[in-house]
Specification:
The complex is a heterodimer of chains A (408) and B (510). Chain A is built from 18 helices and 2 strands. Chain A is mainly α. A two-stranded antiparallel ribbon of chain A has the order 1-2. Chain A is globular and about 70 Å long. The chains are: A mainly alpha (408), B alpha+beta (510).
Chain lengths: 408, 510
């Protein structure tokens, strides 16, 4: 290498070091923000795991005694997982900090993104599950794992939250009309009155899918535990030590707001008028799912998380941005407050006891339907949030960090 | 004009050409030959770090190929991009599933989501070795050699692409939905091929040998079937390539190499299903598709078995009864259409594919990178990898209009030599005369754009280079260049270590 080049490299290295020193206060804050975000991840996964353990108990009771009451109890336990799990999903878009990091070398997951396919994959072709139950192979966790993604088809989902959802509710045949899947408890009857001789196998399937869900959530909670933060090879350790930690957080907020909520989880259904585009299509709990996905976006910004078990409020992007540029902070804050108002209305419409309006009914509403207008405005604001978040990224001087492009 | 004057003019023209010797651009000043001195850095071009003009985005991580055009402001347009993103990412479901907007996969398919081949909107890869069954981001086409005059005439008129294998059809699908057997079993093994630079440094290339066998032993390939391997290419900047003016592309054509620089360059003209006439081919490894919409519609039906308004029939051949009888995704939707991909989805996918932004260059003006650029020009790489264009105006694509872009492609077909040619079942190169895909012969490939190439491994560490993914690194890809690129490659072989590093610094910065 010639001298000029060498000199310029040395100079740029010195410049980078100097910049780091000047920004050491920020870096300190950044470290705390990432640390707090990892705590939030742990809380959300831990709450999900706890809820899944309760689901496991109710499922076991239901299979042993398949009454409508026990089915209702299992459905209610299922519903309780959605709030923490959907908030945890903000962690999923981690390819920018995990690709090439070999985090699976220790036998753990390579990334949240890779792990997630077994836990919350959508779309799910229920025909694949129906075929397995109608078959003769022993139903256990191993079979579900073998059959997941069978025929090299990612939609042949046999595991995870939506598989459990299908087992508890069954297909929703109501289109855009009121009503979710209406699977009767007698689908699991073991008193010899089963209509199609598959009741026992349905029970085995529900149990295997639930057991695996508990195992998977346990693995992920462990990956984010306080101990994991200081253990090399875990997702938490990789995240808190990544120089792209904040890029990842902001990028995840953008992805969840635009690619997921404004698009796949809300916008696609509204644009196409197809009720099957709601992701919780068997249970009609999409209103709950999307509301908590949005809480995940807010958690990442405000550095907060709240549940019966956890109450976290720590170093946050909000405070950091506010310290650098008040207008940018206010832009994001105002947008989040406005979107929250609309998402809360969608949640309330889905949860109210009299004449609830579920998300598949919103999809079916005419263009001036009350809830449809709210949902469409929420989508528009979620897309526009992208601009505010990009401004925030600029204020935080993200995306300028260039680490690995010195020659080849 | 008398003969003498005519000859004089010709001689002047030759002298002028010769004075541009070394293939250097006018703004590149070659340095006097001195073995210890590198060539002078290329003179920077205004805003050349903005490879995709104002649509470029500033990203350096594994999501760098997944952003929309940076200058897109309209929320409504972003919504269409996001809808496309959803259907590009998420898997398609077998026919008659309750997810009516996204069912109809297969009978036969290569993969069930765009994103699973175009990994993070980037490049696919070839399998690592003979034990690796990952053929998920590479596929194989078929065409038969020794066709009749009538067919040849139709191909030369751009009315048909080729004559595919009668039983298997034009593309081999290694997957079927439940109840449908796949068409083929696939395997690759590699032999080492050592290439040595003038300074005795050597690089080991891997030369693929493909084993393509029929899944159903009762059906075999036609005797004259020739295969073409195609790895999924990166998705960035396609909408900008669509807006390079046809005149700018055609003016670089030199089919008979009249300028005797060893580089010909030929435009492909291909049948447009949408326009029902022949159009300039721009997309695909052999420029076999005229527009992004048609490329998308073709990928839907061929790669995933998803019918759409441009391709209403599945690709099953007449003898493939399992495929023909597979459930489809028609007629079960709340919307009124009798194929599997509805128009809003097809159009959103085309819009999405048009607006995946090209990342800005990271270090375009550093000395080493500019020296590398000068070496790239000195070797004559820009003879095909044309540096820059200004896009035309398209009222429907304001973000992509009138942009100064730096794609490094001439969008033309070039003979890349026997080693990279389409191949027979015995892995012998097909004849250079064989028309494989419209006007593109078995040895011809469209110059791929180089923008973003330096981020390839950042997007996916498994990604590999060239049409069949045989090259693990950019330098390996350079060293596989043959045919019209033989001279340029030989110049690279004469580069010393420092020069090679500079060349790679430039390519990695793209």
């Amino acid at each position: 290498m010639n001298k000029v080049l060498l000199n310029s490299l040395l100079l740029s290295t010195i410049a980078v070091l100097a910049a780091c020193q000047n920004d050491s206060e920020d870096l300190n804050t950044v470290t705390h923000i990432a640390d707090n975000h990892a705590d939030i991840a742990y809380a959300a996964y831990s709450d999900s795991k706890t809820a899944a353990l309760i689901l496991q108990e109710t499922v076991n009771s239901f299979i042993a005694e398949p009454t409508e009451d026990n089915l209702l109890a299992a459905k209610s336990a299922y519903k309780a997982i959605r709030a923490p799990y959907q908030q945890s999903e903000i962690m999923r878009f981690d390819s920018i900090i995990t690709v090439g990091a070999n985090l699976d070398a220790d036998g753990g997951p390579a990334s949240v993104d890779e792990w997630e396919g077994q836990v919350n994959a959508w779309p799910l072709d229920e025909n694949h599950i129906i075929t397995i139950i109608a078959g003769s192979e022993e139903i256990n966790v191993e079979l579900l794992l073998n059959q997941n993604g069978a025929d090299d088809n990612d939609a042949n989902v046999t595991t995870g939250i939506h598989a459990v959802e299908f087992m508890l509710w069954g297909s929703d045949l109501n289109g855009t009309e009121a009503g979710s899947g209406e699977r009767p408890a007698t689908d699991f009857t073991i008193d010899g009155t089963c209509v199609d001789s598959e009741c026992e196998r349905r029970g085995q399937y529900l149990k295997a899918a639930t057991d695996l869900l508990v195992d998977d959530l346990t693995i992920m909670a462990d990956e984010w535990s306080p101990a994991a933060k200081t253990t090399s090879g875990t997702l938490a350790h990789n995240f808190v030590n990544s120089e792209f930690a904040i890029d990842y957080m902001v990028g995840s907020m953008i992805t969840m707001a635009t690619d997921e909520l404004a698009s796949a989880r809300m916008g696609s259904g509204l644009s196409l008028g197809d009720p099957e585009e709601e992701h919780d299509c068997f249970s009609d709990l999409s209103h709950l799912a999307i509301y908590h996905n949005f809480q995940g976006v807010k958690n990442a910004f405000y550095g907060t998380y709240g549940s019966a078990t956890y109450s976290i409020s720590g170093a946050s992007l909000a405070v950091l941005v506010n310290s650098k540029n008040v207008a940018t902070y206010e832009g994001v804050d105002t947008a989040l407050i406005s979107i929250e108002g609309k998402m809360a209305q969608i949640l309330a419409a889905g949860e109210r006891t009299e004449n609830p309006i579920k998300f598949d009914q919103i999809i079916g509403q005419s263009s001036n339907g009350v809830e449809r207008l709210i949902a469409e405005n929420a989508v528009t604001e979620l897309v526009a949030l992208d601009t505010e978040l990009e401004l925030m990224a600029e204020v935080l001087a993200l995306k300028n960090i260039d680490t690995e492009f010195d020659g080849d | 004009m008398n003969n003498t004057v005519n000859k004089t003019i010709s001689l002047i023209a030759i002298c002028l050409l010769a004075s541009c010797g070394g293939g250097g651009e006018s703004n590149t000043t070659p340095v006097p030959v001195d073995e210890n001195t590198l060539i002078a850095p290329a003179v920077p071009v205004d805003n050349e770090h903005l490879s995709g003009g104002e649509a470029s985005i500033k990203k350096v991580q594994s999501d760098a190929f997944s952003e929309n055009s940076n200058n897109m402001v309209s929320v409504e347009r972003k919504k269409i991009f996001n809808l496309g993103d959803d259907f590009f990412n998420n898997p398609w479901v077998e026919g008659s599933a309750s997810t009516s907007s996204r069912d109809g996969l297969g009978g036969l398919f290569n993969n069930n989501a765009c994103q699973d081949c175009h990994i993070r909107d980037g490049r696919g890869h070839a399998p690592v070795d003979e034990n690796d069954t990952d053929f998920d981001s590479i596929l194989f086409r078929t065409a038969t050699a020794n066709i009749g005059f009538e067919d040849k005439d139709l191909i030369l008129q751009s009315l048909k692409a080729n004559v595919p294998d009668r039983y298997f059809g034009g593309q081999l699908q290694q997957h079927g939905v439940s109840g449908v057997s796949p068409e083929v079993n696939l395997q690759v093994s590699y032999q080492n091929k050592v290439v040595t630079f003038t300074d005795n440094t050597s690089v080991t290339l891997r030369d693929p040998s493909w084993t393509i066998t029929s899944y159903n032993p009762a059906q075999i390939f036609e005797e004259n079937t020739v295969f073409s391997a195609r790895v999924a290419p990166p998705m960035i900047g396609l909408g900008l390539l669509a807006l390079i003016s046809e005149a700018d592309i055609i003016k670089k054509e030199d089919i008979n190499d009249n300028d005797a620089d060893g580089i010909s360059g030929k435009a492909n003209y291909v049948w447009s299903v949408n326009s029902q006439k022949a159009l300039l081919g721009r997309f695909g490894w052999k420029a076999g598709q005229p527009t992004i919409l048609e490329q998308s519609a073709g990928a839907f039906v061929n790669d995933m078995g998803l019918t759409n308004r441009l391709h209403k029939k599945e690709t099953c051949t007449e003898e493939q009864s399992e495929c023909l009888n597979a459930p489809n995704g028609n007629g079960d939707s709340v919307n009124d259409y009798d194929f599997e991909v509805s128009d809003p989805i097809l159009d959103a996918i085309a819009f999405y594919s048009s607006h995946l932004a090209v990342p800005e260059r990271r270090d375009a003006y550093s000395e080493q990178v500019l020296i590398g650029k000068a070496l790239f020009m000195q070797a004559g790489c820009q003879g095909c990898h044309t540096e820059s264009y200004t896009t035309i105006i398209d009222q429907d694509q304001p973000e992509l209009s009138e942009q100064t872009i730096f794609p490094y492609t001439d969008m033309l077909l070039h003979d890349m030599g026997e080693e990279l040619a389409d191949f027979t079942p015995d892995n012998e190169p097909a004849s250079a005369d064989m028309l494989y895909e419209f006007l593109a012969t078995a040895t011809e490939w469209r110059t791929p754009p180089l923008w973003g190439v330096g981020l390839t491994k950042t997007i996916d560490p498994q990604a590999t280079f060239l049409h069949d993914g045989r090259a693990n690194t950019i330098m390996e890809a350079v060293l596989w260049h043959g045919g019209e690129a033989e001279n340029a490659k030989n110049k690279v072989l004469a580069f010393n270590q420092e020069e090679r590093e500079a060349l790679l610094a430039f390519l990695n910065d793209l």
